Amino acid sequence: MSAVGLKHLFTSPMLNTFTLHFFKDLKTFQSSLSYVSYSSLIYSLTDKREERRNCLECIKDLALSHSTTQRIVLASDGQEASLIEQLSPSHLHGLILKSDPLVILKDQLGKLLNESCRTSDSMISPRNMHRVRLLSPTERAILQFMSCGFSIPEIALRLDRNIKTIRAHKFNAMVKLGVRSDVGLLDAGDILTHFPVADHRTPRFLSTLHS
Q1: How confident is the model at residue 138 (pLDDT cuts 50, 70, 90)?
Q2: What is the pTM assigned to this prediction?
Q3: Could you tell me if 43 and 140 lie in one domain?
Q4: Range of the domain at 85
Q5: CA-CA distance, 211 to 194, in Å (whole number)?
Q6: Are residues 88 and 59 in contact, defined by beta-carbon separation less than 8 angstroms?
Q7: 153-170 pLDDT tens trace
Q8: CA–CA separation, 208 and 186 (whole Å)
């Protein structure tokens, strides 16, 4: 979602009390963390793979270094949201679809940003942790190797398995995750590789949004 799109969302009465801040790149945002206290960060995941990976890394780092900051992710579609929900134990306070109608986006953001007493633990619930465990160690390793650019023959060599076995594990991972292409598996691998932090601390909500 573009900066213009986010600004439009925050014109609604439910959101116009918050102050929005935009950053042209992750480096600029990260440097600001040393002197600005943010209450909430909204991450709009991009279709560009490298930028999306950097964004996942940033969320992970923020969960460790600034656990009091609310973290909300805007996913491109249902599949991307499902993969984040299934594969990452990192605590998120909100996971919203950019493809939802505008009225729903405003309502969901408004509820999240105005919610001060209750947090959403959907990302670390037993249901989702069970989904994470559905992938075997070999399947997880294959996805992470794929994320790092290894081919199936190279993965087979590194795991000391034959190519047919690796392809079978890859197919099983696709079925379990509900993806139908290598692109979907790469997305899953990126989440496993760049977003693998567990955060069970209770966040503190502040009153002003900066993103």
Answers
A1: very high
A2: 0.68
A3: no
A4: 3-129
A5: 21
A6: no
A7: 999 999 999 999 999 999
A8: 35
Helix H, strand E, coil C: the string for the chain is: CCHHHHHHHCCCCCCCCCCCCCCCCHHHHHHHCCCCCCCEEEEECCCCHHHHHHHHHHHHHHHHHCCCCEEEEEECCHHHHHHHHHHCCCCCCEEEECCCCHHHHHHHHHHHHCCCCCCCCHHHCHHHHHHHHHCCHHHHHHHHHHHCCCCHHHHHHHHCCCHHHHHHHHHHHHHHHCCCCHHHHHHHHHHHHHCCCCCCCCCCCCCCCCC
Q: Which pair of structure tokens corresponds to residue 75?
A: 């996913």
Q: What is the pLDDT of residues 46-86, one digit of tens each?
A: 777 788 787 888 888 887 788 788 888 888 888 788 888 77
Which residue type, as a one-letter code, is found at position 211?
A: S
125 domain residue, yes or no: yes
Token duo for residue 86:
């299934």
Model confidence pLDDT, tens digit, residues 78-134: 878 888 877 765 567 888 888 888 888 888 888 888 774 344 444 344 444 444 457
Structure tokens at 45: 């995941």
How many Å apart are CA 21 and CA 23, to the nearest integer?
A: 7
The per-residue pLDDT for 196 is: 62
For residue 197, pLDDT over 80 is answered with no
Q: Output the domain CATH number for residue 114.
A: 3.40.50.2300
Same domain, 105 and 153: no
Q: What would you report as the CA-atom Rg of the chain, rounded to the nearest whole angstrom?
A: 18
Measured distance CA(82)–CA(177) in Å, rounded: 8
